[in-house]
Design brief:
This protein is an alpha+beta fold. Helices cover 36% and strands 27% of the residues. The protein has a 6-stranded antiparallel beta sheet. Strands 18-19-20-21-24-27 form a 6-stranded antiparallel beta sheet, covered by helices on one side. The chain has a 5-stranded antiparallel beta sheet with strand order 2-1-5-4-3. The longest helix has 38 residues. The radius of gyration is 51 Å and the shape is rod-shaped. The N terminus is likely disordered.
């Protein structure tokens, strides 16, 4: 049965009726010996540690006189004098005295001698001894440890098992910005009131539990020494165990590695910049389309550079005019693209793509294009928001969305400001800095050249398309016995516009000439050549020439033009005979859709293209009965870069199998059916349908068959 422990024993942690835990500590390290002598100098008590210090066991030492056993002869007289002084006066003595070890060696031992008195009045002498070498070793270790801890440039702390500071060196005192004395008895959370301290305490508990050290743990946080800036720390945690295995607590060492962190962060930013630039090189400017290029630029900027990115181009630039650039004048911008890293109300509050807006000279985007220099607002306030957003309502949306930093860089190409590249940060907590400006300017410079090329190509395309459309017939004329639908679609690429044409020419005797052709070339020159050939074709058509004769005259004209050849189909339809005569100059054969039958290609002599010179053409005649249809088209309808022409022709004939009553609808269906992502050529269609017209065959006619002539 356990005895009740006295209150004082409980307070000191002394247990009654149970085994005490090993206290450990310095006494064990020093191996302190205890020896008791009676008044005559005989050994009456001998501790186990004394055996380690002097070499004798208790059985060998007890009952013997200490002087002859432990001292050399030359030291005995002095020892007896000191012993007599302690016994007679009761004053203790401390010092170093040489003793003779059992093995015969003489060793220096640190002594603390004092007189003892028992309850019977008997006097004894107590000697507490420690081997001097052992003592000096411990002293040296303690001194070295103290110097290492106090003078180390590394922050060091010792915490108990409750994670309360027990020791803090000056380096950690400076790191934390709290005096060492104010650490003692407090936990890390009380000293470092910033995010990240939870990680520190969790690591300390883990080390105390497992005993496994955590070395070089990376932590970014702030301390009271510098509460406004983040620092990077390399922190190590390890458990401290006493000699008896008792867990004393945990130690931590802290090294400020902010410079290493800065260099690593800079290297990481450089890698990110290179990655974004490489991404931009691959993704921006893939087409000669202004809007597409602007969208590619905005998309490549999020999320690595900004949360929201927009591209706004000066409206004058889109019209291929130079802006005045006067610093006191407003500017008209056209929003070309916007992209965000995540769904946000910011995009709805910004200028809509395609929208035109006028901004005064005090607006930041206007200042950017007027000065041709970046505009950076690291920290946005309410006044800055009103100079960024399109109106106060949009500024309020920006504020609610957390917009806190703004950057605008000019789009510069060939020393001309095209517009601005606008960037916003909301969720990204970092303000725009100098590195961001460098990256944004690099992206803007690459994109500006692509946008400039695209807008000029688009201008050339518009000019060529305008010229070509002006040279084509506006709408088919009223014809006798024939209904005609036509369609022209320019190529997707601006450089491919220009060469295709068609024409419908009324002739004497209710006849109609149907013409389709393709000048081999593109651009404005090809469109102009097409216009000349169309004019010449109309002139020769008025001479009532056979189709092959018209082509021969056109061949001579084309041969006189530099570097140009053209293909052409020329057909004359006689509604009274329901007969069509046609000649081919290197063009794809037309498709004949007889009423109620499968569409087919006409089998015509191919002929050479116009401009080759010296080639004879042939006229072929065939019937075109009421409700029969004839399709003339250019090669842009059926030719692609990755599909065989035979497959495309079969697709065309399948699409023509639909006997829709509307010729315009058939043309649209054909374009839908034959459409291809890589529409690199323009397309001209001419679809004619014979109508019911009572007539009698002219002499020598062949109303049902096909004949050929020269």
């Amino acid at each position: 049965m356990e005895a009740d422990a006295p209150p004082e024993a409980e307070r000191l942690g002394l247990g009654f009726g149970r085994t005490w835990e090993s206290p450990g500590g310095l006494l064990d390290l020093l191996s302190v010996s205890a020896v008791v002598l009676d008044a005559s100098g005989r050994i009456v008590f001998w501790s186990p540690q004394a055996s380690e210090t002097f070499g004798y066991t208790a059985e060998e030492a007890l009952g013997r006189y200490a002087a002859p056993l432990l001292l050399s002869e030359e030291h005995r007289e002095l020892a007896m004098t000191l012993f007599a002084g302690v016994m007679s006066t009761g004053e203790g003595w401390a010092g170093v005295f040489p003793i003779r070890h059992k093995d015969g060696d003489t060793r220096l031992v640190e002594f603390r001698n004092m007189r003892l008195l028992d309850d019977l009045g008997d006097v004894y002498a107590l000697g507490i001894a420690v081997d001097q070498n052992t003592l000096h070793g411990v002293e040296n270790k303690l001194a070295l440890s103290e110097q290492l801890v106090s003078q180390a440039p590394v922050g060091i702390a010792l915490l108990d098992t409750d994670l309360r500071y027990r020791l803090v060196n000056p380096a950690l005192e400076r790191i934390n910005g709290v005096p060492a004395a104010d650490h003692i008895g407090r936990r890390p959370r009380d000293i470092i009131p910033f995010p990240g301290v939870e990680t520190v305490e969790f690591a300390l508990r883990q080390v105390l539990t497992t005993g496994t050290p955590l070395i070089d743990q990376y932590l970014v946080s702030r301390t009271l020494a510098d509460p406004d800036h983040d620092h990077a720390w390399s922190v190590s945690y390890y458990r401290i165990d006493g000699p008896g295995g008792r867990v004393i607590g945990a130690a931590t060492s802290v090294v400020d590695v902010s410079e290493r962190h800065r260099v690593a962060a800079e290297a990481d930013r450089a890698r990110r910049r290179l990655a974004v630039i490489a991404d931009a090189s691959a993704r921006v400017g893939t087409t000669l389309d202004v809007e597409r290029t602007a969208q590619e630029l905005s998309q490549v900027a999020v999320p690595d550079l900004a949360d929201v990115a927009a591209v706004d181009v000066l409206d004058a630039v889109m019209a291929c005019r130079r802006s005045t650039g006067a610093p006191d004048r407003p500017e008209v911008f056209r929003a070309l693209a916007i992209a965000s890293a995540y769904p946000t109300d910011i995009t709805a509050a910004a200028d809509a793509v395609g929208e035109v807006a006028t901004y005064g000279p005090d607006r930041l985007i206007t200042q950017c294009v007027h000065t041709a220099r970046p505009v950076v607002v690291p920290r946005i306030d309410q006044q800055a928001l009103l100079r960024i957003a399109r109106d106060p309502q949009s500024a309020a949306v920006f504020a609610r969305a957390g917009v806190h930093s703004y950057l605008a860089v000019p789009l510069l190409a060939h020393n001309e400001v095209l517009g601005a590249f606008d960037l916003l940060r909301a969720r990204n907590p970092d303000p725009f800095g100098e590195d961001d400006v460098v990256l944004a300017r690099e992206l803007a410079a690459r994109a500006a050249v692509a946008i400039d090329n695209a807008r000029w190509h688009q201008s050339v395309r518009n000019s060529a398309e305008t010229l070509q459309r002006s040279l084509l017939p506006s709408r088919p004329p009223d014809l006798t016995g024939l209904t005609v639908a036509s369609f022209y679609q320019p190529a997707q690429a601006s450089s491919a516009v220009g060469g295709d044409w068609y024409d419908v020419i009324p002739l004497d005797g209710d006849k109609t000439a149907l013409v389709v052709g393709d000048v081999m070339g593109n651009g404005i020159d090809a469109a102009a050549t097409m216009g000349r050939l169309r004019t010449a074709t109309r002139a020769y058509a008025d001479l009532d020439l056979a189709p092959h004769e018209v082509l021969q005259h056109l061949d001579k004209i084309t041969h006189g033009l530099e570097h140009y050849i053209a293909t052409c189909l020329y057909a004359i339809y006689d509604p009274h005979r329901h007969q069509c005569r046609i000649a081919n100059a290197g063009h794809l054969p037309p498709a004949l859709i007889r009423h109620g039958r499968r569409p087919e290609l006409l089998d015509l002599p191919t002929g050479a293209p116009l401009g080759v010179g010296g080639v004879r053409f042939r006229t072929v005649s065939f019937d075109l009965s009421p409700d029969d249809r004839l399709l003339l088209y250019t090669d842009g309808l059926v030719e692609t870069r990755d599909q065989p022409i035979d497959e495309r022709i079969d697709t065309l004939l399948d699409a023509l199998d639909d006997q829709s009553p509307s010729l315009d609808a058939v043309c649209r269906q054909l374009l839908d059916a034959m459409g291809h992502p890589d529409d690199h050529d323009d397309v001209a269609l001419l679809l004619a349908k014979a109508g019911p017209l009572a007539s009698r065959p002219a002499p020598g006619g062949s109303p049902t068959g096909m004949t050929a002539g020269t």
